[in-house]
């Protein structure tokens, strides 16, 4: 996703990136970007800083809470050292100063995506739970004729819960395995991901993800025949 309010630059960059084989969604407002981040999955977000409604720093801060698995970079005319340092402190994978050559931008994007390419989930290729089937390689969750594209972390979290079906999956176990660290902020992110998985699984009334207060979660399959 490209978040850029300059109509000429936004159009130019989005069209050039399409020519180079990328699938691009271009939005010109911060609120639109946040709405899309709630509903869609992205491999990378390119953020301008100076937007008319919400600046890029605020978007990055919200992404840390709601979509921490999605990498982002800043593409901006603001070149002060304090801005660059703030950008990286928020978790940016790159901070690119305008104007930039389009070919250089493509090279940087390709390098980032190559470096951050998530590892495929190990062991099983397909995991079944109730009426659902999770393809751990493509991160597709299938239910009847519907396919849901999961993020890497959503797929890994669901796979972990499936592998521990009807058992307690502790907060610490999940966070260390998927986030690398068990802390307050990662636990808040975990709750967001659990809410997303509940929405995906809502079409099978025999499935539920139950919260065990202070301990963790249990993915329950109430149909003992499966």
Descriptive notes:
- The protein is α/β, with parallel strands linked by helices and 226 residues long.
- 42% of the residues lie in helices and 21% in strands.
- The protein has eight helices and twelve strands.
- It has a five-stranded parallel β-sheet with strand order 2-1-3-4-5, with helices on both faces. The protein has a four-stranded antiparallel β-sheet with strand order 6-7-8-9, with helices on one face.
- Helix 2 runs parallel beside helix 3 and helix 6 (152-163) crosses helix 8 (184-200).
- The longest helix is centred in the C-terminal third of the chain and has 17 residues, at 184-200.
- It is elongated.
- The model has no long low-confidence stretch (mean pLDDT 88).
> How many helical elements?
8
| Binned strand content | 15-25%
Form type: elongated
- Largest sheet, if any? 5 strands, parallel
Low-confidence stretches: none
Number of strands: 12
Q: Which oligomeric state applies?
A: single chain
Question: Topology, pairings included?
Answer:
Elements: E1 2-3, H1 7-19, E2 26-27, H2 30-39, E3 45-47, H3 56-66, E4 72-76, H4 81-89, E5 94-97, H5 102-115, E6 126-129, E7 132-135, E8 140-143, E9 146-149, H6 152-163, E10 168-170, H7 171-178, H8 184-200, E11 207-212, E12 216-221
Task: List its traits.
226 residues; alpha/beta; five-stranded parallel beta sheet; 8 helices; 12 strands; elongated
């Amino acid at each position: 996703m490209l978040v850029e309010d300059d109509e000429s630059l936004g159009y130019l960059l989005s069209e050039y990136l399409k020519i180079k084989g990328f699938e691009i969604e271009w939005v010109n407002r911060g609120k639109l970007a946040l709405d899309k981040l709630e509903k869609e999955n992205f491999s990378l977000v390119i953020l301008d800083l100076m937007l008319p409604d919400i600046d890029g720093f605020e978007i990055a801060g919200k992404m840390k809470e709601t979509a921490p698995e999605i990498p982002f970079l800043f593409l901006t005319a603001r070149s002060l050292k304090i801005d660059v340092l703030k950008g990286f402190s928020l978790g940016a994978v790159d901070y690119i100063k305008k104007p930039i050559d389009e070919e250089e931008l493509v090279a940087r994007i390709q390098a980032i995506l190559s470096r951050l390419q998530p590892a495929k989930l190990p062991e099983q290729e397909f995991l079944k739970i109730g009426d659902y089937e999770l393809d751990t390689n493509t991160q597709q969750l299938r239910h009847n004729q519907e396919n849901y594209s999961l993020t890497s972390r959503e797929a890994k979290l669901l796979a972990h819960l499936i592998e521990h079906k009807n058992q307690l999956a502790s907060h610490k176990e999940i966070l260390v395995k998927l986030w690398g660290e068990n802390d307050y902020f990662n636990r808040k992110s975990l709750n967001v991901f659990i809410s997303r998985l509940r929405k995906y699984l809502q079409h099978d009334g025999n499935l539920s993800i139950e919260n065990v207060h202070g301990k963790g979660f249990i993915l329950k399959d109430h149909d003992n025949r499966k």
